[in-house]
Amino acid sequence: MKPSRQLWAGDTTPALKLLGNLGPGTPLAAVVYAGKLYLGRKQYAPLLQIGWRLLRDTSLLARKWGVYFLGSTYAGEGQEDSLDYLWREFVLSMPKSSLHDLPIVPQKGGGTTVVILDTALRPIPVPFFPRNLGPSINTSSTEAFPSLTVDGNRLYYTSEQKGTEDIYWCERDSVTKRWKDPKPLGEPISTSNYSEGASCFSPDGQWVIFAICGRSDGLGGCDIYLSELNGQEWSPPKNLGRPVNTSHWESQVCISHDRKRIYFASDRPGGLGGTDIWYSEWKDGRWQSPVNLGPRINTSGNECYPFIAADGRTLYFASDGHPRLGGLDLFISVQTDGG
To answer: Which of 177, 204, 275, 289 is deepest in the core (most CB within 10 A)?
Structure first.
């Protein structure tokens, strides 16, 4: 039986014997093939040797396979410090024109990622052209948590004025396309007694889900509340209660396009780090017990500010636990068919 047939049959021992001892003149394809077999068997000792051999090769393709096998070894054995060192040495030695074609390395705990350390990323910044919305919206205080209606003509956001946070809104002029002067959302959502903010409005503008801190009916420091638009009036905010809210901190919530799932940040027990991102589904007339998004998203650091796109599969969030350039960086994750 040929080596390839042995691989598909699940018995790789004869295939490795046929490949021999992989001497100096062994073709790259054969060395890579052996590495794949060792990786499939989780035989990390010989895989480590193959990885370092390829990483020292003058061929860029060989070095890419080398970092793949070494990264797989370090990830499989939980040697995260070695994994970081490996990527630093490899990426810094690569031509900048080749950085877009880096191999994928498995993450400990599942999933795949390309890890590029900050020293390698700084010379190749991603084009990014943010535009300030101007003094009618932005002030010397903090403005954050913007939320647009689906037509893009109404903006809601949080602003800190006089020591408390409140929700403001403004509309886009139909002729000039500029934003008009903002107004506080007012009672019953925004009050002078508490800090209300981190709001997310449903695409149809009929729901607002947001955080209130220090309210008498709250369960923790900050809780998640929901209000519905009835005609031209907002209903009094309703605490989502348990199991969404706890005696801990829940905030920075967003809602899916179909209004059937919310994502939020919390420091509740059961997380992986400081603050984690959780989700809860609306089912059987109630919000279900929140589920942690797990180690592909959450780290031992802080993950926060989630936003789910209209497709329900693309999640944007901030983190200081994933490899990054600064304190909190923005990340994107797309849910695959397998979850």
So the answer is: 275
257-271 residue pLDDT tens: 999 999 999 999 999
Rounded Cα gap, residues 278 and 111, in angstroms = 18
Predicted confidence (pLDDT) per residue in 83-108, tens digit: 656 665 565 555 544 444 444 444 44
pTM: predicted TM-score of the whole model, two decimal places: 0.64
In one-letter notation, the amino acid at residue 198 is A
Contact 264, 257 (CB under 8 A): no
Determine the pLDDT at residue 114: 41
